[in-house]
Design brief:
The chain is an alpha/beta fold and 133 residues long. 20% of the residues lie in helices and 13% in strands.
C-alpha cells in the first residue's frame, strides 16, 4: 500500500479554502479532512465511507477547484499529477487543482516531465521542518 501522507494542518486547509473556494478534497481521511460545509471528500480507502467520505479520488472526475493530498509515494504522486493534468486538458470548464506533494530529491513532479509543463505552477514550498506535517 501507499505510505500515509503527512497532511496539511486543518487550519491551513481552511485558509487555502478561503483563498480558493475548493469544492472537493481528494485523498481525504475522515480523521483529518477539513470538514468545511459544502466540500465533497474523497478517500482512497473504501472503508472511510462509513464515516461520510466518498470513495475513489482517482476515479472521480476532477473538475472545478479541488485540493488533493495524495499518499507520499512516487507512484501515487506521479499518478495524481497526471490525473490533474488530464482533468484540466479534457475539461469543459476551467480546472484548478491545488496539490500537497512531497519535496524529496528527484520527486516525479519536480522532474523534467512536469517542471516545464505550461499548466503547472509551484505556488509555494513549505519546508518539512516548519509545519507539523
Amino acid at each position: 500500500g501507499s505510505a500515509p501522507a503527512p497532511k496539511l494542518p486543518v487550519a491551513a486547509t481552511h485558509v487555502l479554502h478561503a483563498c480558493t473556494g475548493f469544492t472537493t478534497e481528494l485523498f481525504a481521511s475522515p480523521l483529518d479532512c477539513s470538514m468545511i460545509p459544502g466540500v465533497a471528500y474523497y478517500s482512497d480507502d473504501e472503508h472511510d465511507s462509513a464515516f461520510g467520505t466518498l470513495y475513489g479520488p482517482m476515479a472521480h472526475k476532477w473538475e472545478g477547484c479541488c485540493f488533493a493530498q495524495p499518499p507520499h509515494d512516487r507512484s501515487c504522486a506521479r499518478s495524481s499529477l497526471i490525473r490533474a493534468l488530464q482533468a484540466a486538458a479534457h475539461a469543459d470548464s476551467p480546472v484548478a487543482c491545488f496539490m500537497l506533494l512531497p519535496q524529496w530529491g528527484n520527486a516525479p513532479h519536480l522532474g523534467a516531465t512536469f517542471s516545464p509543463h505550461p499548466d503547472t505552477l509551484c505556488l509555494a514550498t513549505i519546508p518539512a521542518n516548519s509545519v507539523p506535517l
